[in-house]
Amino acid sequence: MTTRVAIVGATGRLGGVVRDVVLATEGYEVVAELSSRSGIGEIDGADLVVDVSSPAVSIDVVRAAIERGMNVLVGTSGWSEERIALVRPLVQHAGTGAVFIPNFSIGSVIGSALAAAAAPFFPFIEIVEAHHDKKVDSPSGTAVRTAELIGAARAEVGPVEAPHTDQRARGQRVASVPVHSLRRPGVLARQETWLSGPGESVQIVHDVLDPARAYAPGIRIALDAARAARGVSVGLDTYVDIGLRLPSEDDGEPVDDGAASGQVARATEL
Prior knowledge:
This protein has about 270 residues and is of the alpha/beta class. The chain has 7 helices and 11 strands. The strands form 2 sheets. Strands 2-1-3-4-5-11 form a 6-stranded parallel β-sheet, sandwiched between helices. A hairpin with a 2-residue loop joins β9 (about 190-195) and β10 (about 200-210). The protein is globular. Residues about 250-270 have low confidence and may be disordered.
């Protein structure tokens, strides 16, 4: 059975990648491509809505999909756990599924997982993320997700030590972690997580060099997950077994780890 997909934000950078992946993936077809000039009613007739629009309109897209009984895959940035919590009762009442993916890159998922695994051992942690100058939101959804994982991983040892955060130049605190955002031309996506303790530090860096190749495997995994989802799931790590246990508040139904791993293998061969 073919899944009919409506892409909201299809004319954007990520939207173009999503469209190409959907068109190239068996079992899916694009039935609507919405831009900023489209009416939300154009999603009617779809089985799955993929939202890669903008933070300002994303909540309306998600609400519209849920009200129509459609599952939704959200790749739009700006969704913190607090904001996602507002969607959970709507999804539960409608009996649908919503999958939020802060970053479709497998490498990004691994970087965030490594940061969370190391977080209990280092009292000082800060995140520096850089994106192109056209990105309208900050901090990035990936940085927010990483900080929230770090905060959850430090639940027993306490919040990150972040001196002088009353000063604006010290960044925005997310789950106690200072996050610094850079927006400049010539950059696609880069995140640095700095973990420091007495006499040592660890730096975890992830760079996106080719968005189409970096995001395609994760998009395929997320599409399959969102098509069958019930409830709310957050993060690609929900569906990809990377060998690290992450703190999570998922109430969705993850796909079989073996199947997800197979998808990654097949996708990276293309």
